[in-house]
Fold each of these.
Amino acid sequence: MATWTCSISPTSRRPSRSKSLGTLRSGLGLQSESNLKSRGDIAPPPAASRTKLIVVGVLPFTILLILFVFKIPIGQPDFRLRYSPLVALRIERSVIALVICVLGILALWGASRGVPFFVLRARSLRAIAISCFVALVWWTVFALPPPTGQLELEQHLFNLLSPSHEGAFIIEAQSVKSVREYVSRVFFEHLAKPPNEMRGRRVLSNPPGITALCVSLNDILEASPKMRKYAIDSFGLAKLGDSEQQGRFAAALCLAILMTIAWGLSFWPAFSLCRLWLSPTAAAAIAFACVFNPATVNFTPGKDTMQLFTVLCIMYFWIAIGLIHAWIFIIVCAATGFNAIRTNRDEVRGWARGLVSCGIGGAATALIFYLALDWNIMLTTYRVGMRYGQIQLPIITDPLYWTFLGLPLFLLFAGPCLWIELAAIRANVVNATARFGAILLVCATAVMTYSYFFANNSETVRLWIPFIPILLIGLAVRRSSLRLNTLSAEEDSTRDSIAMILLIVQLTVTLAMWTLMDVRESEWRLLTGRMWN
């Protein structure tokens, strides 16, 4: 978060040309900022086109609203994204988020323009913008209304104890006696079973890291009665008479808090990454869209939104862990390597040095885990990947035409900022940065196409959350109206206005879509009593 504070300072319209930033650019095969002012750049689009941006941005919500009004099911018979039966309560609770959004937008606008208002200085405005973002992340945790009125967090508890959601990892953790034994032997034994004998497909479709985290949380709460009591009191679980149930619920909600914190922290690497190419205000808007969009808000707290932090760190630091992280690394490595080859030999050497450093760091990390827990991360990732298709095969959509439903569902919930950037995808400038954006998109599309037919494509809304940042950043760096290439104060002002439009539309549409949806069926199941059957 400190990076945001420093980078959007109104006294400096350009980021610092530090040695570390130059080294990172060289490793990525990109030109320095002084070379971004290519003759191919053109002025940002006129003010009249801003109306088109807004129209395109509200289109996903318009589509969803039409489906909602006419009660058209979203999905296919075995997998549905349900509408919320508590829309009125959700709208009421979204008012708080709207107030937070307005404060954050005003603060960011004042900081980007260098125009203090409400007798506050620019530094205070930046602090307000950061605080509003943090508050918005926490709002998603406590905003869901309790369907039966028993516990304020009962929807989250339902998801965190459901075998089809994050509850699968918590349930698995309850049977684990030793983390070392589980990651070195037991997990592989479960993985070797035929699909019809597997206990918990969701658990075996992922490396056992999240299960190990759940075991650690259980151990911490059992070993510290004071911490256990504090968690029970904080979450309002004292009304539950069963002590064992209190402890289980407390562990589940502690996991939810950790996943939410990781999701919120993902803004830092997202913003740092965007600042390599984009203006401060544009970087804030795109980074926010990477983190806060209809898909992440509707599936939080959860493992998929938590992964955004590590995925974005991969893109910024070149680190690889887990299955989805391996895919992201392949995309970024291939895109930057090809771009380096297209640039010059020096850039290739920088890319190669980064690749070697990444390999050494990854090997060192794997060695530490192996020595500490007897956990072979590389072997685990490989075996999970080899078995993933067989594990998920029984729930992959059939007949074939249902397969093609996943992509429109993903586009619907990926966020309005992605729609706007897709509408402006045509190339209007040719330079190293725009070319890198195009290469990144090609590599991402190739990997996503393969995974679409390889994985459970009905759930692309959730499973493809980690790919949203790659798509948004790849599209954004192609636009001269967002990059660090403007030459006049008027162009700077136009660029900041466009970025603010992206931010406002993203926030508004995301909250509006949240009010309509019960994507995990928690409200519907709690109200109907169908629970996990």
Amino acid sequence: MTRQILVFVYSLIAAGLSLGQAADDSTVRVFIFAGQSNMVGSDSKVKDIKNFPLYAGLEQPQEGVRFSYSIGRENKTNSDGWVALEPVNNTVGPELSFARRVTQAIDAPVAIIKCAAGGTHLGGDWNPDEPIGFKMYPLALKLVRDSLAELERQGVRYRLEGFMWHQGENDMFNEDYMKNYGPNLKNYLAKWRRDLKSPKLKFYIGELCTKTIWGMDLRPRMYAISRGQRAVTEVDPLAEYVPTSHVGVEIGHPVGLHYHYGTLGQLQHGDNYAAAYLRSLGQAQAPARPLKRWPYKKGSEVNLFILAGHRNMEGERAFVQDAAKLGQADLLKDNPGIAFKYNLGGGYRKSDGWEPLGQAGYYDTFGPELSFAGVLQAKRLGNVAIAKFTHSGSQIIDWTPEGSMARSRHIYPEFVKFIQQSIRELEAKGHKVRLAGIVYHLGENDMSFYPYRKEAAGRLQTTIGQSRKDFGQPELKWFVSQQPPTDEKGVNRIDVVADMEKVAAVDPNLIHIKAFDLPPQKKRLVLDTAGVIALGRLLGERIAEGD
């Protein structure tokens, strides 16, 4: 074959590939969103989007994204065909952030079909075989079929790309529905695939958020639903369990606990689905942050500090954009002088080994470790390494050695392994490791729920005692910070500050830090950016005083 013919053949192949790719990139990716109130967007407000910098602009229509919907229960709001994606009824649904993130990551156009109604159950309303009540399954099926038929009439090439499902809270109030959630969900997925003639349709099953009040007072029932969900996703290769317990939750009154994600949580909820979908395409979720040069001399001693806790240690509402407005942008820069590793959100994000200390939180957030480290470096406390282990959707009972009946929420074993592994890794690099202290911020949600507030100090005391045994350090220091607890008549019957004082009084290696002079916070329970920065500095100062 002559060179000219070869060139011609290769050019045809290349052209075919590019044309095929172009055709695929023009194929509309259709996603279905379905479920109950936390899929609707209950207790969210469009006007609040501006408070969360990462999601600015999502109150505006996304003209390039098609949207077809039927939302609500008795009084439904319908799009009556395809429209541009935008908020409906002044609420914020997860589809808004999902669509923006996905369209920024792929070249193909996106369309969303949404059918959701609060207070509905899989065992009845969404039952594909014998729907009762609001008969959501036939309603949703008709909506999807009609929406797809309209695309066909318009000559639009499409493919069903994914089904986002968030539901289950209402099934836990019916004993039969609760114990059969797994089999019912398996049947639900099978019937959708059959009825849409899409046997390989991928499902993304959203975790019920354990940070809500139901995650505490209905812990056994929430756990039963999660077990049913996992029973399906663990055996169905086309179904994925999507964690959501680390996202923000609406702050309620009078104690702060709530049932719904609210505005911030809904935006992050959609982000979670987008991340899961993009992972299925092989797209990395976070840029690599390698520690290019090891910061400590071989053979030197390293002071290892463990930061642990819940939503404020994680930094739920400390946003990088607000740090810049406060003149704290330098705080966010990577610090290669401190080795840092982390396990955040109950494992939702983990570091790839040791990284330079820096902003590592998801959703453009950060924790008190940045300002904490700044104080320790300024005080010249020698080599400092930081390992951070948090889960903002946990309660103190999850950190105890015995845990609760909700075994999937038992944090303590992984917490101990995380610390032990951190020590081994530093020792493998030739260092003598001094476990300088565990810095723990007391659980915020526990302070707002009477049974948990009553047990908080005792449970923490048990965890501290067992950790000293597990690490073979009977004098291991715990620095426990406590912000002003929820001030409400019902929970004020328990003086949890006095309880912590009593525990600290009999334990010389438990340093109780009253973080009572932090900047005023806008919401109960959660510290904003200024509060998280101040908390880190307070912790650093108290440790430096006694080190």
Amino acid sequence: MKKILFCVLLLVIAGACKRDFLNTKPLDKVQSTDTWKDGALAEAFVTGIYSGLGQGGFDEQMLAALSDEAVFTHPGRGINIVNEGTLNPSNIGWVNVNYRWGKDGSNTDMYAMIRQANLALENLRTATFDDKALNDRLQGESHFMRAFYYHQLIRYYGGVPIVDRSYGLKEDYTVTRNTWEECVNFVLKECDSAILLLKGKTLSAGRATDLAAMALKARVLLYAASDLHDMPTAKSRSALISGYAHPEFLGYLSGDRIARWTAAKSAAKALMDAAPLRGYKLNLTAPASAADGKKNYVSLAMGGGSKGPDVDKTAESEILFGRYWTINKDEYAGMYVGLANGPNGYHNWAGNTPVQELVDDYEMMDGTKFSWSNPAQKAQPYVNRDPRFYASILYDGADWKPRDKISGNVDPANQIQTGKYDQGGGVFLPGLDTRSSSIENWNGSWTGYYVRKFTDPDPDLVDNTTRQTIPWPFFRYTEVVMNYIEACIELGEDNEARTWLNKIRYRAGMPAITETGAALKQRYRNERRVELAYEDQRYHDCRRWMIAPATLGRKLVYIDVVGTLKAGATPSSPYKHDETRYNYTYTPLEVNSHEDRKWDDKMYYRPIAQDEMNTNLKLIQNPGYN
């Protein structure tokens, strides 16, 4: 009997244990209701909203290859906007809303990120953890991130559906597009909420701040005031837009453009006044030396992330919102910018290579425009140029990193080689960084250039094998100053515009400009082009200024470099750039076989993906894609 009772007791205990086991919480997951009871868990959830920023600089620099800054070296990967994208009816909607490619080739879904922000804001308002300061800060970050993702959507698509709450199961998910004006107002309201909640709070690098929200507000207002989004102006310049039945999705149908430019100016100036010391070396009253101008610009691009010599790490102050990297995390693309874009003669991939159009727009040191019609400039096109050129572009003969750390002792001079060089007897040696390189020949530049900007110049950092930690500036102080300058020009305040434009030029070692009116506007646009090169600006600027047919749609120009031996000279072995031995010729060539660009006005806006159109029948497509 005792044995029977003992067995029954064991069975009861075992059954209870099994029930308790079934009732235990998983150790690798947190219930949603618990998240908002604990400040650390709530912060972790909000941190997850930042994941939509993707790989930062690597992703954003892909956009350079859709503009007249660069060309993507490797066609056939769905990145060539003209040959494989918007002009191909069977491929409408192929590209992501902000041109970000994930590690698995998938795209960041802006609305998935917006949903995360919506969930955070809904739950933080009723959260029970006892830390009001943290709660306010997390709400501020969530407002900013929601505004950031919506700003990405509207600058590609125009007006989009505003979804400011999370949806549950079995709800009607179909929604209509909001107007451009409604979307702009929503983003501005989000920015104001973020500014209020984040003001005075110190956050770790990479998290949203009140200054980041102010910078976003200034950018959105600048876009809102621009030609593309003023429908009377846009219709006068594009028959396609003029014939579109829903212009309210694309811009303002009427209203006071002066008021819009004034708002853009005020928003930019508010940040400049709030944080004047964040601007790096914008207090000069005369041009820096050429050497210092180059150092200043390299330092800006490094954002405090380089350990290399001759880099001023205090330039990190310029970054108002950036993507930072942790060396022991699997953040592949963003930390391998040098590998992705660097010269193939260093076993790199030459991803987004500068085109001649960009190179030509860097001025001479005296502030005059470079011209191939000038015999002296044609003979030595890389001499006496804007210091930002040398900090941004790798060209034939440019000094670069020790090649022997990755490619062997084949180039003691450590110079970029993108030409072909006379060896005598009619034999020409292809440079080590060409598509006929003896090191690697499948991934060389087509254009004759490589990008240097955002690649760590530390000679001990081998781009092919070592990760860099250069932060990506989604917003930097100088962009805000540029926005202020543009608004001043549009308002006829030329003196104020020149004052700030010259501050930027002085830092780069360039002389002051003196133009007024339309000439000042053109000078400003070129200055913005070179100062913000490869920073996710040019593609959007050309569209909002409505100059895309002459810029984004123009044919690409590459450079052909040939070094011919001088009479009586012997070839250098191994080769190095040597003007005592070689006569160099530089021939710009229009090359359309790789990518034959042309412009169609429908490309002012991205197409809504057909899957979205099929799922949500309330959506109306952008002009030109039906």
